[in-house]
Sequence to fold (258 residues):
Amino acid sequence: MSWRSFIESAGASDHAVQVYDGVDELTSSVGAYLANGFAAGSPALVVATPGHRRAFDGELRARDLDPLDLQERGLLTCRDAEETLATFMHDGRPSPKRFEATVGALVDEVASRFPEQTIRAFGEMVDILWARESKHAAIELEELWNELARKRRFALLCGYRLDIFDIDVQTGALPAVFGAHTHARPAHDTSRLADAVDAALREAVGPIDAAHIYLDVAEQPRLRALPRGQAVLGWLSSGDAALAESVLERARRHYASH
Fold:
């Protein structure tokens, strides 16, 4: 399933991640994801920070949807990300039992009002943990969501604020984050990212070597599900740090200048 297909028709157990830089990038994805669900009669569960919730409300209004009306009709349920996270963390790690008792119960509450529909959930508690350097806890929480999805009927979109042009992010964050999801969006505009990486790669190694790199990347099964630009950045970062840093620096400039 493509990213567009996920946004338009997310199914039960679909688990996607949007990596973003600016809040407007996240807001656009979340707004489209929620709006498509509401159009199909699907309820939404949003677990977000207050600032992001306000941004999402603004995006829904721009799409001619009234957040207050949606909440009154039971279609939109919102919870504070920090407060919800605190209910199931224990000794710096998410407790499976507490997660089931709080988040599982919250999903059940929404499902009870719309038993025939797939809930569209958005959450950024994992991003809060990652920003606190609690990276193992963030991935454990992702797996708890995956386990919950095997017993409940919902799709989940996560948001991570990460700098994809940083080699430490490419080697230390993205493989783990992408590995916990069924769909990954490394940047809001993946076509723009592909163009930026292509230009950066040709500048760094020349068109012939760039073509060889694309062929090598195409032969890596684990990278085939990723957008082309990210697949190239991930492959370079895991194999040739010096070249990767050169390409990342150039790609950042090209991406920003578009």
